[in-house]
Structure formats: structure tokens, C-alpha cells
């Protein structure tokens, strides 16, 4: 339901007591899947249900980091404004990109609208990853 946007199946699962924060083998939650498959309706429903908006997968990606990497301004806005996602949450030291934030991911893609949304949401422009690189450094990579 979270991948294809089927709201009926989603609501049925919720009504049957589904654990919306449960993760799969990769650490993806329902929110990760809904963001990755661009399902804004499901994302809104998950946020309304109170899921953990800052939960990271096994690679260290939060749903907001995925939205930034996938260049989705709509998803970033939903997660930051509606879901109160932590725009400065960094990937852990055992992750794919230790210390990187959603702004690092957005800068790497070159998507100015997503970068702007994150900065307006409070993202620190000079945050350094574990290698000392800022989002501006990532943009140049």
C-alpha cells in the first residue's frame, strides 16, 4: 500500500493494528517506502498516525534524506512542515555517508528547490560530514 498509494489497503492495515514503524530487512519503514515511491497521500496519513519521522534505515537514511536524494520538494515539505522532521539529523558513523544530512544529499543532486526548502526549514548550511565536507563541498563532487 505504501509503494503504490493504495489508501484502502493502508487504512485496512491501520484498522487491523499494523505496526507502522516496523522495518524490513533493510531498515525501511512504511514511511521510507511511501517517500521512495512518491506517495504523498500515504506520507500524510503516516505522519497523521504519528510514525517516527526521523527513523533511519540500515544505511543511515531517514525518510527526509531519501526525499532530498530523490529531489522531491513536495516530500521534503511534507516531512519538514507536517512531520517536523529533523533537518539536521546526520547519518551515523556506521552508515553509507557518516555525518551527512539531508542538505548534503540535496546539494549532491544540485536541486536548488530542495536545498532551499531544507535551509528554510532550519538546515545548517555549514554542517560537516565525518570527512569534514559541507553541503557546498558535496555540490562540487
Compact summary:
By secondary structure, the chain is mostly helical. It is 46% helix and 0% strand.
Describe this structure in words.
By secondary structure, the protein is an all-alpha fold. It has 8 helices and no strands. The longest helix has 10 residues. The mean pLDDT is 93.
CATH-derived architecture: Alpha Horseshoe
Q: What's the helix-strand series?
A: HHHHHHHH
**How widely separated are the two ends?**
36 Å
CATH class: Mainly Alpha
Give a count of the beta strands, DSSP E runs of length 2 or more: 0
Shape: globular
Query: Into which percentage range does the β-strand content fall?
Result: under 5%
Mean pLDDT: 93
CATH fold node name = Serine Threonine Protein Phosphatase 5, Tetratricopeptide repeat
Determine the structural class based on helices, strands and strand pairing. mainly alpha
Rg from alpha-carbon coordinates: 15 Å
**Count of the domains:** 1
**Tally of helical runs:** 8
- Give the low-confidence spans: none
- Let me know the largest β-sheet: none
Amino acid at each position: 500500500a505504501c509503494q503504490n498509494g493504495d489508501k484502502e489497503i493502508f487504512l485496512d492495515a491501520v484498522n487491523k493494528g499494523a505496526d507502522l514503524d516496523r522495518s524490513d530487512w533493510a531498515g525501511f519503514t512504511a514511511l521510507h517506502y511511501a517517500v521512495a515511491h512518491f506517495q504523498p497521500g500515504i506520507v500524510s496519513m503516516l505522519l497523521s498516525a504519528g510514525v517516527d519521522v526521523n527513523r533511519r534505515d540500515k544505511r543511515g537514511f531517514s525518510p527526509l534524506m531519501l526525499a532530498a536524494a530523490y529531489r522531491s520538494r513536495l516530500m521534503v515539505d511534507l516531512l519538514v512542515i507536517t512531520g517536523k522532521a529533523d533537518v539536521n539529523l546526520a547519518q551515523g558513523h556506521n552508515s553509507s555517508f557518516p555525518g551527512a544530512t539531508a542538505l548534503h544529499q540535496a546539494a549532491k543532486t544540485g536541486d536548488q528547490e530542495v536545498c532551499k526548502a531544507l535551509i528554510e526549514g532550519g538546515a545548517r548550511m555549514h554542517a560537516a560530514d565525518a570527512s569534514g565536507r559541507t553541503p557546498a563541498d558535496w555540490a562540487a563532487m
